């Protein structure tokens, strides 16, 4: 028996010695818990900050309903995709990424179109550090929880995992802040203060995704 | 009783292993190893590295065994792990190759094997002496192409000549030099 065969046999023996009974991980169970806890957290934030005064008026507008529907759809599809991506054979569910990316692109296009309708997307005049930092704080805890869950998994697509996590949490934050922020009259404002900083943060963290999700 | 195919057998062992059956797990890993090694060998030229990657795959299977769901096919799950580990290895390999770039001064063995020893300049002097017997234009063409590293096209444009004429000149000079220095 060669050295390498002996090494392999030793390794197999060692791995078998380590084996303990386990139940197969369910992709839906943990993400359902995350969704419930995150929605509960956002409800808490809404309760703490108070609902937007014009909310009843907004609820009669088709554009607002469409926007919220899109955000909820992105949240659910991105969270599910993120959960599936923590399985090695996630390639079999590649269509989940396609759905999420399509929804997110439509949402960004919708924001862009609304921004143009509102009279242009001036970053400088719309940027408020306090609003931006509040957006990041609101989204940080669900994001950390989702990253932690992905770290516990076995992803073979770390960059996609990070992208899905960012999309899920940004849409969650968008829903929460859209229902609370009193200054939130324009989509441009929301995009620049709540979505853009978090997406930039996600891109920066995404550079380290391979190390972060190493297993 | 119908005989199970390889993948069906692996799937069966994997399910038993998840329940804690060490014998089934050992059979699974022993059966998978030659398959993994063959897949990895195809992508890597270095046999030792392929062996290492195959063992890494076994460890990864152990770490992620609970991510295999019995209702899903086994082979895509296995192939995803193999490909991931193989890419991981290749990424590290190419990153290290970048680190390995160094100067010739820092590698005296490389210098002695591949670079003309500066103390042995006799050969160079002989070439220079032989080259001096050629017409100046022919010397210039030879020096620029064979010593200074210009392309025939660049030399042709500098000397206002046709590219083919430059190539012919450099080739003839080389042939004559070889004859003179024998």
Written overview of the protein:
The complex is a heterodimer of chains A (215) and B (182). With 215 residues, chain A is mostly helical. Chain A has one domain. Chain A contains 10 helices and no strands. In chain A, helix 4 packs antiparallel against helix 5, helix 7 crosses helix 8 and helix 7 crosses helix 9. With 182 residues, chain B is mainly alpha-helical. In chain B, 74% of the residues lie in helices and 0% in strands. Chain B has 9 helices and no strands. Chain B is rod-shaped. Chain B starts with 5 loop residues before the first helix and ends with a helix. The model of chain B has no long low-confidence stretch (mean pLDDT 83). Chains A and B meet through helix 1 of A and helix 2, helix 3 and helix 4 of B.
Main attributes?
heterodimer; A: about 220 residues; mainly alpha; 10 helices; about 75% helix; B: about 180 residues; Rna Polymerase Sigma Factor, Chain: A; Arc Repressor Mutant, subunit A; 2 domains; rod-shaped
Could you give the distance between the termini of chain B?
Answer: 81 Å
- Count of helical regions of chain A: 10
Helix content of chain B: over 70%
Shape, principal axes of CA atoms of chain A? elongated
What gyration radius of chain A follows from the Cα positions, in whole Å?
A: 21 Å
Order of helices and strands of chain A: HHHHHHHHHH
User: What is the CATH class designation of the largest domain in chain B?
Assistant: Mainly Alpha
Residue fraction in strands of chain B: under 5%
Summarize the helices and strands and which ones pair or pack:
The complex is a heterodimer of chains A (215) and B (182).
Chain A: H1 3-18, H2 27-49, H3 55-58, H4 62-84, H5 94-118, H6 123-126, H7 129-152, H8 158-180, H9 187-206, H10 209-212
Helix pairs in contact in A: 2-4, 2-7, 2-8, 4-5, 4-8, 7-8, 7-9, 8-9
Chain B: H1 6-18, H2 22-43, H3 47-63, H4 74-99, H5 108-114, H6 122-131, H7 136-147, H8 152-159, H9 163-181
